[in-house]
């Protein structure tokens, strides 16, 4: 008899847990930010802070990779698009956004644009972004808008000194050059803002892929 009662209790408990899980999944689908990491690099406006706060509350207890990734990307975009005026407040916001992105990557690491998001936040915080940027290359392909942003991140920081990243970044630069009429201003801007190592990377790649554009860059 006691065994039957125990089995019933276990069955009821399991049913409650499953119901709660299903409810959280349904609620998560309703409030999940419609914002992906790639949107951050396409200039999309992030959700308002009220929606972010609601999504953040659920993300703190969720293992849904899409929810965590979307929230992390939206939190990063919020920091970058709506930075706090106060330096301490901005630093705190960047750390919180980094924590959200890291939490998502722990659950679902095959997200190249989200790795670049982490690298972008690390650059904003004055931290080394080379490992995160490298992971953005190693975990898959990205849309051209993300690739252009990655070129800018690589060429403007210490990542341009890493030989493996230099080789990987050449594919991003060549992708942009394949539609040069559209992306030429962004490549020029990246060159102007680049470190000496970043400039050499852009010059070396364009010298082979597009000598005419190489001549344009050398004017700046």
Write a structural description:
The structure is a single chain. This protein is an all-alpha fold. The chain is built from twelve helices and no strands. The chain has helices at residues 2-31, 37-40, 49-59, 65-81, 87-107, 112-124, 130-138, 144-155, 163-177, 180-193, 196-209, 211-217. The longest helix has 30 residues, at 2-31. The termini are far apart. The model has no long low-confidence stretch (mean pLDDT 85).
Descriptors:
220 residues; mainly alpha; 12 helices; 76% helix
Question: What would you call the structural class?
Answer: mainly alpha
In round numbers, the mean pLDDT is: 85
| Unreliable parts | none
* Helix/strand order: HHHHHHHHHHHH
Strand content: under 5%
What is the distance, rounded to the nearest whole angstrom, between the alpha carbons of the first and last residues?
86 Å
Helix content: over 70%
Contiguous helical run count: 12
- Assign an overall shape: elongated
Largest sheet: none
Strand segment count: 0
Radius of gyration over all CA atoms, rounded? 22 Å
């Amino acid at each position: 008899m006691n065994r039957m009662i125990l089995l019933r209790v276990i069955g009821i408990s399991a049913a409650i847990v499953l119901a709660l899980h299903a409810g959280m999944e349904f609620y998560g689908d309703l409030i999940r930010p419609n914002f992906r990491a790639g949107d951050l690099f396409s200039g999309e406006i992030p959700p308002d802070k009220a929606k972010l706060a609601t999504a953040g509350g659920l993300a703190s207890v969720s293992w849904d990779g899409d929810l965590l990734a979307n929230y992390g990307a939206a939190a990063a975009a919020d920091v970058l698009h709506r930075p706090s005026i106060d330096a301490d407040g901005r630093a705190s916001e960047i750390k919180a956004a980094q924590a959200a992105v890291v939490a998502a990557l722990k659950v679902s690491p095959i997200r190249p644009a989200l790795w670049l998001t982490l690298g972008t936040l690390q650059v904003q915080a004055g931290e080394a972004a080379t490992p995160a940027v490298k992971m953005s290359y190693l975990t898959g392909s990205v849309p051209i808008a993300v690739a252009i942003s990655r070129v800018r991140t690589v060429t403007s920081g210490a990542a341009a000194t890493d030989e493996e990243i230099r080789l990987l970044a050449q594919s991003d630069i060549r992708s942009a050059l394949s539609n040069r009429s559209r992306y030429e201003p962004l490549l020029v801007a990246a060159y102007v803002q680049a470190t000496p190592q970043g400039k050499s990377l852009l010059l070396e790649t364009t010298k082979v892929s597009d000598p005419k554009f190489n001549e344009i860059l050398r004017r700046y």
